């Protein structure tokens, strides 16, 4: 047997041993894209030690034997003492993460026939051609579980009942697949083996969170003797909280399945009964069952529904009071819980009773964050496993466009893209929908246009209510203002793009930028252009939209905006017409405005740090803004947007005549000379109205305008200029 370094040892002459002792390695989780593919990834040095080529078949020896295709590990995951196996291969080998397995090279022949037993729905025999195409190349042994990921990312899972020839084989194009119906008792699936559950490869974008939960849950259940020897009490409970759809329930189910613990799921409201004492009895029964079938995990979903703050409960809510007291007693009462761990999930942690949130009950609170760009890419890889993607689909680009999307949103996005693909294909299909041929299914391909349609249907949960579409405006759409554009790029883009340089120089990026200038000079346009290239989430707020007539509502709205911005950081908040939101305090006329200013100051530069959140504000009345906001540390940069000069006006006219057909007599420089004092909005209006004059001429020529070209002439501009000057 070999050492953990992955170098094979030679048996000595005096101690005869197995001719191929193989490599002894520890098991790690697989990459998301490898789930269900029976792939073992190892360090390239271990490939040489085994004498294997890429794609060869190796035997994995754990509590039982299975076979996998061996591949080199990805560069970021290389470790000579590790082998990456997905959840299905770990189940087939009878091992868990961090267990040791032995790898040996074996020879496998293409299978002539394989008999499969489904673990869930029995597919029709005519569908086996399609399923076989998905399983092509999969190495199998008798007794292994194999999985075909279908078009919609659902799984068809089977157990290999019989293989011909016996021994290690792989499924090839000529392999005949058949379904075993000998153990089926009825359509309910009784008598069939149970399908394997979620694994860590089915959880994307939550690597650090899964690691923390494993420390708290998996280790005490699998290795209790270690905690006993060290004299450490194992953790009793974990509270998961975060935005809805980020994967709180998914993490709990994956951990429970990987630990092979008995899993009890409680939905908060279902505990409450109508009879006196019934609710408390239900809780006691669940904890008693967990102790009887230990090791167990009790998962309480939406715990805020059954354990709210008792001081907030009136006399009519005695049931909720008793349920909270019973839950406290069960979690940390006179009787020990044994090997029972409680995992709870909520998206409103501040509504929970404080007594629950102390060590001994919920020992650790773990925030499930909104996924960042790498996390969104992992989630997209999980939900597109079974999708035949077109060549124009780049998942990294889609991940970059889905700011603020949580895991549930991305799952819905992939589902909608698949539906859009089906809507395109259905008119071309002559067969009935229920009788799709395998060839038709294999011809389906989800393209970039399908994802574009899906993005219009699915809104991001993390930015709902305050989210606006990231503008398509670019710096090229802003005419003139070159100095201002350079300054905004340095203040907004550089801290995101060159974060390492800022860290080396010890520079803190600005917290706020105030754009001021006369109406129509391009303040809002600059904000839209600055949001586009940064890959930051973009929240746009109209100044007066946060004000409310009810006491405390306006301040709460300001807190909510900044809370969401922190949650989806890096984020850019744009306040338009900010003078309406934070006027000068002390006039005594408007107490609400004074409180809003105070709240705004606390959020922008208070005790709680504002990391990776930049505030961009625009106003044409900077004299009306409270002076406390204008000091460094709050609005660090105050950028004055001037009325455009001649060169800037020419640049603006070039932008607004782009795509329009100009006559030979139109001289933009002449128009620049005649538009002294015009703002950017005035020049945009000039081009728009001149184009409208050209359209009027075409309409006046008669009912048939198919051959009429819309050409902007000098006379059109002259007429509009005279009208605007009047």
Explain this structure to me?
This protein is α/β, with parallel strands linked by helices and 726 residues long. Helices cover 35% and strands 17% of the residues. The chain is built from 22 helices and 25 strands. It has a 6-stranded mixed β-barrel with strand order 1-5-2-4-3-6. Strands 15-16-17-14-18 form a 5-stranded parallel β-sheet. The protein has a 5-stranded parallel β-sheet with strand order 20-21-22-19-23. Helix 7 (278-292) links the parallel strand 15 and strand 16 (296-301). Helix 11 (407-425) crosses helix 13, helix 17 runs parallel beside helix 18 (591-605) and helix 19 packs across helix 20. The termini are far apart. Residues 1-18 and 183-189 have low confidence and may be disordered.
- Spatial order of strands in the largest sheet: 1-5-2-4-3-6
Radius of gyration: 32 Å
Strand content: 15-25%
Q: Helix segment count?
A: 22
Which geometry do the CA atoms define? globular
Distance between the termini: 95 Å
Let me know the number of strands.
25
Outline the low-pLDDT stretches: 1-18, 183-189
By oligomeric state, this entry counts as single chain
Helix content: 25-40%
What is the mean pLDDT? 79
Task: Please identify the structural class as seen in this structure.
Answer: alpha/beta
Largest sheet: 6 strands, mixed, barrel
Secondary structure blueprint with pairings:
Elements: E1 23-29, E2 39-42, H1 44-50, E3 57-61, E4 65-72, E5 82-85, H2 87-93, E6 100-105, E7 109-110, E8 113-118, H3 128-135, E9 139-140, E10 145-149, E11 155-164, E12 169-170, E13 176-179, H4 207-222, H5 224-230, E14 237-242, H6 248-259, E15 262-267, H7 278-292, E16 296-301, H8 318-332, E17 340-346, E18 364-368, H9 373-383, H10 395-401, H11 407-425, H12 438-443, H13 448-457, H14 482-497, H15 499-505, E19 512-516, H16 523-531, E20 537-542, H17 553-567, E21 571-576, H18 591-605, E22 613-619, E23 637-640, H19 646-656, E24 661-662, H20 668-674, H21 680-700, E25 711-712, H22 714-725
Parallel strand pairs: 1-5, 2-4, 7-12, 8-13, 14-17, 14-18, 15-16, 16-17, 19-22, 19-23, 20-21, 21-22, 24-25
Antiparallel strand pairs: 1-6, 2-5, 3-4, 3-6, 8-11, 9-12, 10-11
């Amino acid at each position: 047997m070999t050492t953990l370094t992955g170098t094979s040892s030679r048996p000595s002459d005096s101690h005869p041993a197995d001719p191929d002792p193989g490599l002894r390695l520890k098991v790690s989780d697989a990459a998301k894209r490898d789930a269900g593919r029976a792939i073992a990834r190892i360090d390239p040095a271990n490939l040489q030690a085994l004498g294997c080529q890429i794609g060869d078949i190796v035997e994995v020896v754990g509590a039982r034997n299975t076979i996998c295709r061996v591949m080199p590990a990805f560069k970021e995951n290389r470790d000579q003492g590790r082998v990456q196996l997905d959840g299905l291969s770990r189940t087939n080998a009878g091992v868990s993460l961090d267990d040791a397995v032995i790898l040996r090279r074996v020879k496998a022949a293409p299978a002539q026939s394989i008999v499969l037993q489904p673990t869930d729905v029995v597919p029709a025999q005519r569908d086996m051609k399609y399923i076989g195409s998905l399983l092509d190349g999969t190495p199998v042994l008798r007794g292994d579980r194999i999985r075909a990921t279908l078009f919609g990312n659902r799984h068809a899972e089977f157990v290999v009942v019989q293989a011909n020839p016996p021994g290690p084989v792989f499924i090839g194009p000529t392999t005949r697949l058949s379904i075993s119906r000998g153990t089926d008792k009825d359509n309910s699936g009784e008598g069939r083996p149970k399908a394997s559950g979620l694994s860590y490869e089915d959880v994307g974008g939550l690597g650090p969170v899964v690691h923390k939960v494993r420390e708290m849950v998996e280790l005490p259940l699998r290795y209790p003797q270690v905690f006993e020897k060290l004299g450490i009490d194992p953790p009793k409970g974990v509270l998961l909280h975060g935005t809805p759809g980020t994967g709180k329930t998914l993490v709990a189910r994956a951990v429970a399945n990987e630990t092979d613990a008995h899993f009890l799921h409680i939905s908060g409201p279902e505990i409450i009964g109508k009879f006196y004492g019934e609710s408390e009895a239900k809780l006691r029964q669940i904890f008693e069952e967990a102790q009887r079938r230990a090791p167990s995990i009790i998962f309480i979903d939406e715990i805020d529904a059954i354990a709210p703050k008792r001081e907030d409960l009136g006399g009519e809510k005695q049931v909720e009071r008793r349920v909270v007291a019973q839950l406290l007693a069960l979690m940390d009462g006179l009787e020990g819980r044994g090997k029972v761990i409680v995992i709870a999930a909520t998206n409103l942690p501040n509504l929970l009773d404080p007594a629950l949130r102390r060590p001994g009950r919920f020992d650790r609170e773990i925030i499930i964050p909104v996924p960042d760009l790498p996390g969104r890419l992992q989630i997209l890889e999980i939900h597109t496993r079974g999708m035949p993607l077109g060549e124009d689909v780049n998942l990294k680009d889609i991940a970059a466009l889905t700011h603020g999307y949580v895991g549930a949103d991305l799952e819905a996005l992939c589902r909608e893209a698949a539906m859009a693909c089906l809507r395109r294909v259905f008119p071309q299909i002559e067969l009935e929908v229920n009788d799709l041929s395998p060839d038709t299914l294999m011809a389906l391909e989800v393209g970039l246009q399908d994802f574009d349609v899906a993005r219009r249907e699915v809104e991001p949960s993390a930015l709902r209510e305050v989210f606006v579409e990231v503008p398509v405006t670019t710096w090229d759409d802003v005419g003139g203002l070159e100095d201002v554009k350079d300054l905004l790029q340095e203040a907004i883009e550089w801290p995101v793009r060159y974060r390492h340089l800022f860290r080396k120089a010890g520079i803190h990026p600005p917290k706020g930028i105030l754009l001021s200038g006369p109406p129509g000079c391009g303040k809002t346009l600059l904000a839209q252009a600055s949001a586009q290239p940064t890959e930051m989430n973009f929240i746009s707020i109209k100044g007066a939209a946060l004000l409310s007539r009810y006491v405390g509502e306006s301040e709460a709205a300001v807190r909510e905006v900044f809370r969401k911005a922190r949650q989806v950081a890096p984020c850019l908040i744009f306040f338009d017409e900010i003078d309406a939101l934070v006027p000068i305090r002390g006039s005594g006329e408007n107490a609400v405005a004074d409180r809003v200013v105070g709240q705004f100051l606390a959020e922008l530069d208070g005790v709680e740090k504002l990391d990776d959140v930049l505030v961009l504000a625009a106003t044409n009345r900077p004299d009306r803004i409270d002076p406390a906001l204008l000091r460094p540390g709050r609005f660090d940069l105050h950028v004055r947007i001037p009325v455009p000069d001649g060169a800037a006006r020419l640049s603006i006219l070039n932008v607004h005549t782009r795509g329009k057909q100009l006559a030979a007599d139109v001289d933009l420089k002449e128009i620049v000379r005649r538009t002294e004092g015009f703002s950017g909005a005035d020049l945009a209006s000039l081009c728009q109205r001149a184009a409208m004059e050209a359209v009027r001429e075409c309409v006046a020529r008669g009912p048939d305008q198919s051959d009429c070209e819309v050409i902007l002439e000098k006379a059109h501009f002259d007429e509009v200029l005279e009208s605007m000057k009047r």
